[in-house]
Amino acid sequence: MGGTDKAFAQLGGKPVLARVIETFNRCQSIGQIVVVVNASKINECRQMVNEQGWADTTDICVGGERRQDSVAAGLDRLKDCGWVVVHDGARPLVTEELIKRGLAEVQETGAAIAAVPVTDTIKTAGDDRIVRETLPRSSLWAAQTPQVFRCETIKEAYRQPTAEVTDDAAIVERLGYKVKLYPGSYDNIKITTPEDLALAEVLVNKYGK
To answer: What's the CA gap between 86 and 111, in Å, rounded?
Structure first.
């Protein structure tokens, strides 16, 4: 992103993160919101939350060096929760429907994540970039957020030492818990590059968000 904090990049006249918090704040199934941000952005985030009057945003805290460190910091701020919804602040097109669907699906196993079927053909290769295997696309899913967990399950998972992971479900899976996939959305993109931001702008204009 050329040095720009993707969570605070402007999207349709609003910071990316603001769009995420707005959606969660509107969702009646959500009782408290903890926002985890870079230390350099914490005052800016506090100002944004105060100006918007997002009552469900109960805490803003500084994240850690790795993704799981940031999630653990957020979990420590939650109070009296039965269920936890973890969402990436760089996925601004999350909907209330996706959140509610996750909270419904999680009842079966105690862990459920949004995901979409992979549309590209996936191949594995070594360092030499020689193809070793073509994976069956029918069984491949691209994980997204929201990822929803029974509170005690995700907290137990984060009490275990672990190597770096790219999503929270991976930590829960290692403890032997079943994680259910539920239908995400191809529009629920993650802002990682300027091209992603441009695509998100098109989608915002398309849906009038």
So the answer is: 11
pTM above 0.70, yes or no: yes
Q: Is the peptide bond before 117 cis (omega within 30 degrees of 0)?
A: no
Q: How far apart are CA 172 and CA 155, in angstroms?
A: 9
CATH of the domain spanning 6-207: 3.90.550.10
User: How many Cβ atoms are within 10 Å of 131's Cβ, its own excluded?
Assistant: 9
Q: What's the pLDDT tens digit per position in 105-144?
A: 999 999 999 999 999 999 999 999 999 999 999 999 999 9
Extents of the domains making up the chain? 6-207
Strand, coil or helix: what is 31? coil
Find, among 168, 187, 190, the residue nearest to 6 by Cα.
190
